[in-house]
């Protein structure tokens, strides 16, 4: 069993700077955990603490229900893949993969079997006699993974393993890692600053900022229900629209005042309760680009969910399957996804359909979610 529990973990480096400030994360055996966040937020520090390469200042790290704070890396039954791959340049691929097995004095015959199994899995059988210098970036990455797989550990730790690859290869290797996880079922902790990698790979995502986990949950939960402005803006591309405006009474419910330069109006909001107390105050409405669309994309426009708002189109960006339309709302730029057939034109007016059924609201001061 390799569940992982991170209990109220703090890290201060010897220079006195606090880097992790009370991190709590729990995953079950076999889950794929993503640590995601901007540069310097403490992702690698946390991963290195799980690996045993950094000490724990305060708190507990448990693997399979056992506290490992004082266990050396070799006694933790984990294998790590670094961003730099850390291959031995003078050794062949075969020797790189079997290096750890050799150290642990695994019999030669068994080593050959493991190398053969792993290189087949990663499709690098034809590269076994080459040296790292004779490999492409993607091939080196596979060898580094092969070395980790050869160990058959209880947990894999990956620190930005794809960041040295070009865009196309990254996407290929991303699905391979996912496939590998599906086949092996081994617990994985994976560090990335790429929110798309986080969304596509993880069973659970911990979004970090300044040494604090801002939100921990399943990808869809984080996408649909971000707990604060930072998480909302970090996950999703193009990012969630933030429209600041005043809450007003609207019939028996509430609405948000909108001004697009072309028209002033009120957007009905599907909230009451908590939001009623904000009437007359400013809030930030969070709406994903795919929730603002054209009449053609908005099926059942009479379902009461879509509300037409006239805007002036700033810029358009065709992506193929849909076209991004940029416009001004309440003095800020928003982005919407429309059907290419809607044929939006810059500098022209257009009616955009706002679907607020998945809208979220934030307090502009605390930046926390209100509703
Ligand atoms: N050995 C160290 N001594 C002192 N400070 C350190 C040490 N290692 C990292 N730091 C600091 O701790 C903070 C977190 O670093 P860490 O490497 O964990 O960030 P990260 O989230 O992995 O960033 P990146 O995405 O750039 O890799 C940074 O401010 C960094 O400067
Ligand atoms: Mg790092």
UniProtKB/TrEMBL annotation:
<dbReference type="InterPro" id="IPR012340">
    <property type="entry name" value="NA-bd_OB-fold"/>
</dbReference>
<dbReference type="InterPro" id="IPR040582">
    <property type="entry name" value="OB_MalK-like"/>
</dbReference>
<dbReference type="Pfam" id="PF00005">
    <property type="entry name" value="ABC_tran"/>
</dbReference>
<dbReference type="Pfam" id="PF03459">
    <property type="entry name" value="TOBE"/>
</dbReference>
<dbReference type="InterPro" id="IPR003593">
    <property type="entry name" value="AAA+_ATPase"/>
</dbReference>
<dbReference type="InterPro" id="IPR015855">
    <property type="entry name" value="ABC_transpr_MalK-like"/>
</dbReference>
<dbReference type="GO" id="GO:0140359">
    <property type="term" value="F:ABC-type transporter activity"/>
</dbReference>
<keyword id="KW-1003">Cell membrane</keyword>
<dbReference type="InterPro" id="IPR005116">
    <property type="entry name" value="Transp-assoc_OB_typ1"/>
</dbReference>
<keyword id="KW-0997">Cell inner membrane</keyword>
<dbReference type="InterPro" id="IPR003439">
    <property type="entry name" value="ABC_transporter-like_ATP-bd"/>
</dbReference>
<feature type="domain" description="ABC transporter">
    <location>
        <begin position="4"/>
        <end position="235"/>
    </location>
</feature>
<protein>
    <submittedName>
        <fullName>Maltodextrin import ATP-binding protein MsmX</fullName>
        <ecNumber>3.6.3.-</ecNumber>
    </submittedName>
</protein>
<dbReference type="Pfam" id="PF17912">
    <property type="entry name" value="OB_MalK"/>
</dbReference>
<keyword id="KW-0378">Hydrolase</keyword>
<keyword id="KW-0813">Transport</keyword>
<dbReference type="InterPro" id="IPR017871">
    <property type="entry name" value="ABC_transporter-like_CS"/>
</dbReference>
<keyword id="KW-0067">ATP-binding</keyword>
<dbReference type="GO" id="GO:0016887">
    <property type="term" value="F:ATP hydrolysis activity"/>
</dbReference>
<dbReference type="InterPro" id="IPR027417">
    <property type="entry name" value="P-loop_NTPase"/>
</dbReference>
<dbReference type="InterPro" id="IPR008995">
    <property type="entry name" value="Mo/tungstate-bd_C_term_dom"/>
</dbReference>
<dbReference type="GO" id="GO:0008643">
    <property type="term" value="P:carbohydrate transport"/>
</dbReference>
<keyword id="KW-0547">Nucleotide-binding</keyword>
<dbReference type="GO" id="GO:0005524">
    <property type="term" value="F:ATP binding"/>
</dbReference>
<dbReference type="GO" id="GO:0055052">
    <property type="term" value="C:ATP-binding cassette (ABC) transporter complex, substrate-binding subunit-containing"/>
</dbReference>
<keyword id="KW-0472">Membrane</keyword>
<dbReference type="InterPro" id="IPR047641">
    <property type="entry name" value="ABC_transpr_MalK/UgpC-like"/>
</dbReference>
